[in-house]
């Protein structure tokens, strides 16, 4: 039986179609005269400048501005006309050597004023590109930009030596190559220090999880190379093939579309033939670069262009070590032009023959060359020429239609599969997506057409997880549980990102009583498809009453993910009974110390205290601080009160225009003081805290370092007992700078609220006070 040469035939056709723009550029380029190829330099610089200006406007427009052209892109960075910041930075880096050639190259009609104008234009473009490279946030791009800038010195020196050795003597050139390099390097340093937008430099100073994971991706890709040795997994198949071998620890709500190393991905997908092609390309590049840099002839314009092209191609090759710039049609076409320039010293001269100086003619005209190579008697008749033209036009139309059909199919195959199938009826992903739509139009009695489409999709692409899952549904509806389970496991083996398969496996594992396996599928579904939380969170919350479920879930909460944070937030806000939540958090020793999860703990404490569940609140407090037991038996002010880190378990302040309180840190940084105010005719509670004092006798002391009050104004300290319905068990009014009193806590009052009430009195001045300290000590 014949099998496709790739695991994903539809993606293979897509990849083939993506080469057509570059092929078109190549076919046009090889027919251009040398002067026309030279003129492309300004076009390439102009396109780079257009992308740069567009990227600058993107940054000005904000993180989600309207100028970002793609749904999946590097939001917040200057990506220009690209979707990936690394690709934009690679293009910008390749422009620098082009600017050096543009500014220092004269033709036979150039004058000093024109040369200076070109130099000024090149300097302005460089001034735009240097900060843009930083704003892209691409560290690879920043390194490539430095190499590109350094290369301008080599190009300038070569051009200068040519000028001094030519028949015109020393040309009136400015040292633009050196000037550009010095200017740009200084700009890189200044911008990295002064501007927070220098994301590329900032990312050099930090190590993100994504960077660590990239090396793991490469290790897995090497294993895939040997797995699919010697012919590879096939063109366009990397994303699907990687998901088969992707370890659980790397699962996320995004998927890896590329290996982020184009050399390695080529080896994985094309195997030994791909490596052979790469080796041939590298050897050809090195041969042309050697001719450009080490030829014995005098420097010509074509040699200078070839040197510039060799540098830019080298930069793209380096960029391909950490990314995939040539997977974009724009940069692939860019590379084709560079290859044409690199080949200039060895290409036939179809316009003017170059000598040692640029623009010098050796006397041969295009007409004389054409006449030399013309062959009388070989001319085609007019009829044959017309037929050839018609055949070419027909071929172009056919290829154009195929490319358009493949493009529409690739875009619509998941979200609008019916549209995709109108253009490419055999597209496997579109067939599976359409089958999925038909199934869920009536999941209890799905149409048989959905299963026929799923079977057809599987025939077109054997590693189609969605199609396998649909066939598993059919087996389940027919009562064949063993076959359904086998198909669902096969679907999961191909990709754990199919939510339908994970949901089915959750139900199957739960029915069999395998709690750990059930939680594993919960983890997979919620990690890869966060939208399933609306269905799965309520179920998981209801299951927390089971100690075995809490034990299994605790293992996953100790390694937090996005969904675990969201689940805790959902549980704390939604649970009618907080006991399982408290036990779970106590079991894992508290939630991680991220700001979002600390906020959840404070919300939980609020709910517990509001429900008078003070023992549970203290249990949660113990997971937040090692000094929990002393924290709520001491009434004094602490830095945690200043930050509000402990929420309702610390001092709680009230503040409004009529009265309130606020903490501030003393000048010596060692004391926290409480400022209190109350307007005239205002009496209100301004501060309070929860205490866990044992029943017995205590001494209360408060020291006020500033106390101004109107007639009848006062500060009142009181203690309430929640167990007695909030009854006040002790109170003292203070009108002096110090207060001291003894009191007792009854046996039925294990938890207390200490309140501070401020009254502004009857005068016009109100009350203002600064409390330096407050303490409650047991009487032995």
- What characterizes the major β-sheet? 6 strands, antiparallel
Radius of gyration: 37 Å
Low-confidence stretches: 108-112, 165-174, 192-197, 350-377
Mean pLDDT: 85
Tell me about this structure.
Helices cover 57% and strands 11% of the residues. The chain is built from 30 helices and eleven strands. It has 780 residues and is of the alpha+beta class.
List the helices and strands and how they pair.
Layout: H1 9-18, H2 20-29, H3 34-61, H4 85-104, H5 112-135, H6 139-165, H7 176-194, H8 199-205, H9 209-227, H10 238-245, H11 262-294, H12 301-322, H13 329-342, H14 366-373, H15 382-412, H16 417-423, H17 428-441, H18 448-460, H19 465-477, H20 481-494, H21 499-512, H22 515-528, H23 533-542, H24 547-557, H25 562-574, H26 579-587, H27 595-610, H28 614-624, H29 628-631, H30 639-643, E1 652-653, E2 655-656, E3 659-665, E4 672-678, E5 683-691, E6 696-709, E7 714-721, E8 727-734, E9 738-745, E10 752-759, E11 767-778
Antiparallel strand pairs: 1-5, 2-3, 3-4, 4-11, 5-10, 6-9, 6-11, 7-8, 7-10
Helix pairs in contact: 1-15, 2-13, 3-4, 3-5, 3-13, 4-5, 4-6, 4-12, 5-7, 6-7, 6-8, 6-12, 9-11, 11-12, 12-13, 15-16, 16-17, 17-18, 18-19, 19-20, 20-21, 21-22, 22-24, 23-25, 24-26, 25-27, 26-28, 27-28
What key phrases describe this protein's structure?
single chain, 780 residues, alpha+beta, six-stranded antiparallel β-sheet, five-stranded antiparallel β-sheet, 30 helices, 57% helix, extended
């Amino acid at each position: 039986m014949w099998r496709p040469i790739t695991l994903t035939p539809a993606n293979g056709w897509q990849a083939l179609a993506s080469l057509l723009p570059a092929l078109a550029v190549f076919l046009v380029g090889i027919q251009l005269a040398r002067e026309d190829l030279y003129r492309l330099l300004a076009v390439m610089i102009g396109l780079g400048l257009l992308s740069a200006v567009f990227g600058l406007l993107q940054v000005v427009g904000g993180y989600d501005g309207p100028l970002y052209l793609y749904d999946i892109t590097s939001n917040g960075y200057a990506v220009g006309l690209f979707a990936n910041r690394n690709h934009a930075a690679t293009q910008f880096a390749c422009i620098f050597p082009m600017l050096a050639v543009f500014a220092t190259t004269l033709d036979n009609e150039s004058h000093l004023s024109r040369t200076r104008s070109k130099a000024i234009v090149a300097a302005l473009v460089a001034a735009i590109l240097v900060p843009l490279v930083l704003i892209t946030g691409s560290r690879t791009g920043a390194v490539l930009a430095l190499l590109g800038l350094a290369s301008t010195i080599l190009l300038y020196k070569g051009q200068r030596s040519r000028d001094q050795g030519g028949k015109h003597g020393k040309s009136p050139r400015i040292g633009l190559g050196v000037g550009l390099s010095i200017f740009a390097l200084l700009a890189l340093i200044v911008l990295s220090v002064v501007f927070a937008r220098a994301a590329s430099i900032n990312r050099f100073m930090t190590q993100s999880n994504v960077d660590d994971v990239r090396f793991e991706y490469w290790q897995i890709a090497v294993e895939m190379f040997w797995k699919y040795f010697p012919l590879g997994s096939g063109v366009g198949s990397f994303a699907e093939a990687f998901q088969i071998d992707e370890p659980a620890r790397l699962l996320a709500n995004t998927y890896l579309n590329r290996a982020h190393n184009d050399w390695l991905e080529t080896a994985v997908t094309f195997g030994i033939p791909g490596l052979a092609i790469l080796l041939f390309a590298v050897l050809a590049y090195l041969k042309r670069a050697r001719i450009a840099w080490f030829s014995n002839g005098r420097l010509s314009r074509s040699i200078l262009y070839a040197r510039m092209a060799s540098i830019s191609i080298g930069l793209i090759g380096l960029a391909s070590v950490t990314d995939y710039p040539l997977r974009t049609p724009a940069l692939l076409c860019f590379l084709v032009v560079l290859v044409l320039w690199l080949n200039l010293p060895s290409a036939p001269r179809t316009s003017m023959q170059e000598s040692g100086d640029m623009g010098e003619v050796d006397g041969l005209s295009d007409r004389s060359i054409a006449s030399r190579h013309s062959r009388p008697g070989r001319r085609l008749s007019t009829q044959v020429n017309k037929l050839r033209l018609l055949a070419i036009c027909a071929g172009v139309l056919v290829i154009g239609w195929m490319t358009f059909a493949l493009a529409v199919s690739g875009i619509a195959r998941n979200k609008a599969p019916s549209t995709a199938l109108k253009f490419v009826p055999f597209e496997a992903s579109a067939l599976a997506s359409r089958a999925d739509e038909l199934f869920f139009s009536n999941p209890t009695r799905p149409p048989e057409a959905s299963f026929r489409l799923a079977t057809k999709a599987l025939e077109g692409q054997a590693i189609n997880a969605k199609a396998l899952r649909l066939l598993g549904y059919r087996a389940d509806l027919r009562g064949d549980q063993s076959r359904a389970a086998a198909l669902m496991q096969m679907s999961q083996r191909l990709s754990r990102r199919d939510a339908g398969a994970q949901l089915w496996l959750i139900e199957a594992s739960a029915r069999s009583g395998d709690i750990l396996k059930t939680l594993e599928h919960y983890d997979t579904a919620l990690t890869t498809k966060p939208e399933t939380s609306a269905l799965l969170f309520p179920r998981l919350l209801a299951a927390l009453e089971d100690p075995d479920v809490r034990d299994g879930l605790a293992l996953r909460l100790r390694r937090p993910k996005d969904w675990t944070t969201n689940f805790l937030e959902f549980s704390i806000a939604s649970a009618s009974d907080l006991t399982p939540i408290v036990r779970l958090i106590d079991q894992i020793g508290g939630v991680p110390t991220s700001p979002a999860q600390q906020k959840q703990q404070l919300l939980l404490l609020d709910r517990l205290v509001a429900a008078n569940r003070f023992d549970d609140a203290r249990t949660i407090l113990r997971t937040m601080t090692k000094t929990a037991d002393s924290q709520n038996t001491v009434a004094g002010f602490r830095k945690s009160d200043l930050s509000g880190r402990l929420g309702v378990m610390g001092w709680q302040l009230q503040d409004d225009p009529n009265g309130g309180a606020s903490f501030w840190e003393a000048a010596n940084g060692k004391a926290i003081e409480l400022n209190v105010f109350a307007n005239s005719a205002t009496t209100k509670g301004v501060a309070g805290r929860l205490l866990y004092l044992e029943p017995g006798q205590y001494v209360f002391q408060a020291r006020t370092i500033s106390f101004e009050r109107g007639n009848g104004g006062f500060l009142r300290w009181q203690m309430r007992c929640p167990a007695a319905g909030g009854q006040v068990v002790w109170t003292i009014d203070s009108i002096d700078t110090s207060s001291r009193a003894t009191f007792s806590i009854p046996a039925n009052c294990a938890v207390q609220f200490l309140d501070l009430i401020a009254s502004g009195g009857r005068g016009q001045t109100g009350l203002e006070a600064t409390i330096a300290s407050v303490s409650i000590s047991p009487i032995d």
